[in-house]
Amino acid sequence: MQNLLNQVKDLVQDTFETAFKNSDKKVELEYCDLQFGHFATNIALMSSKDLNLSPLVIAEKLTLSLESNDIIRSVEVKSPGFINITLTDQAILGSLSSTHEDVLGSVDSLGAGKKMIIDYSHPNIGKPMGVHHLLSTIIGDSIKRIYKATGHEVVADNFIGDLGTQFGKLIHAVKTWGDMNAIEANPVPELLKLYVKFHNEAEEDELLDEAGRAEYKKIEQGDPENRELLKKIQAWSMAEMLAVYEQLRVEFDYFNGESFYEDKIESIINLGIKRGLFVESQGALVCETDNANEPPALIRKKDGTSLYLTRDLARIAYWEKTWHPDYMVNVVDVAQSLQLKQVYEVASKLKLTDADNVHVAFGRMQFADGSMSTRKGNIILVEDLISQTKSRVRDQVVSLSKDLSPLEQADLTDILAFNCIKYNILRQNRISNISFDWESMLSLDGNSAPYLSYTAVRMKALKKQGEVYGAADRQPTGELSEIEIEIILKISRIGGVVKAATKNYQPSDIANYCYDICRLYNSFYHAHRVVEDGVVNNTRLLISNSVLSIVERCFDLLGLQVPDRM
Q1: N- to C-terminal Cα distance for the chain?
Q2: Cβ within 8 Å of residue 145, ≥6 positions away
Q3: Could you report the per-residue pLDDT of 516-548, keeping only the tens digit for each?
Q4: Is residue 554 included in any domain, yes or no?
Q5: Rg, the chain, Cα only
Q6: Over the chain, what is the mean pLDDT?
Q7: In terms of C-beta density within 10 A (0-12 exposed, 13-18 middle, 19 or more buried), how is residue 400 classed?
Q8: I need a surface site. Which of 77, 148, 294, 496 has the fewest CB within 10 A?
Q9: Residues 36 and 172 in one domain
């Protein structure tokens, strides 16, 4: 369904082509400041050279034709040739009715026939999930939702870290200091303690690292004892991960970890050797990159074990063979930029896929007030972050909802806590470090999840009132105030916002659009009564319900929930 901007753009294009048949210029149309009108175009300036006419002459001719259209209230020409267009109230209201039916318009078919495979979260087994995995999880899940909403076929594959030398170290620690009864009773925290102990001991005994590497080599060589222990560690870790994902409302289609690609690595290595791309260097196997200032890509260590990069290459080959995607997306923090750059370059040299390999990078999480400290292991745990967020939400936000029962308050605490965690991450530009500031995160009157959630609850309450008074079928009429026009024009921007977020893998575009429209809505709400003394203003109710549709869609794209009451 066409949105308002595209409708006016097509009108101006048709008018221009009728008036000036010897120009093939395409009209560009933008929203403009309301003091000048609703839309503006520079087509007169862009076509002046082709037509050998002054921009003002072109603009004046276009103005005469446009003014006769019944959706246009006025057209104004501004030197040196800009055209500002103001629509009638009824045209604006008509677009609102359309937008209310389908809030994304034609953007929902943007990815028709295209397929994306996306990897995000990818925690390491044997360790609790840290906040750096939380960032990848939340950003990746939102990108998946956005791409699905724009018509792409999306496969979510969690490339879990379950191979590598660190597991040899962990197995050595389990064999040397582990108590299996304690581990089985509380697996992941006990494994973390052992992993930390290994590294502490290794600082005093340099031979320990070699012992860890030896245990890992046994894994790759198929040692039954180490293989069995690794399987147990994987199962224990997966149980804890799935519990976290369930709380976050995050789902994956596959959990193809690094071990899944173990039997697919040798064919990649053989292919690289056969093509002369992989060569020996000091006993290791490497691939030279095109940048002489970068180290070569390490394909296999001198002890014969594989690396992340090797397994990434096997993943790309498998994705291509299995799904033939248009996009292969990895949501990985910016510290891995060189690693993925080399992966993509080597994959290109090997001609493993024609898909676009995309690294969606993000910064680190920073705590503004230093309120979150690390546990042993030098990481901030997701479970600690969730627990503290729930506590603060309960004390600072939910405690204000005195009309709710204890059960309703508990449900609201859960919804708002996860909304707060997710929205705080997604509203920020992922390229920068992500600031975690409790005060702004829990604010009821700023760019925060509680503010958006409360605004949505307010709209839901008005929608119910409208249903009670039977206002749903009445046609909207009447003149519109400036704030009503502004908010309807903001609604019509949703398609462009989602399109930009899709192109740039940037959920913050949607998050901040959602905040802007909620802020406008609250100005509208305080300026105008939607229901007064049992009488419903249907135009205002339509505006309110349309904004609710937009906000609910934004929440879905961000992985948030709208509470029933606050």
Answers
A1: 34
A2: 556, 557, 558, 559
A3: 999 999 999 999 999 888 788 888 999 999 999
A4: yes
A5: 29
A6: 90
A7: exposed
A8: 294
A9: no
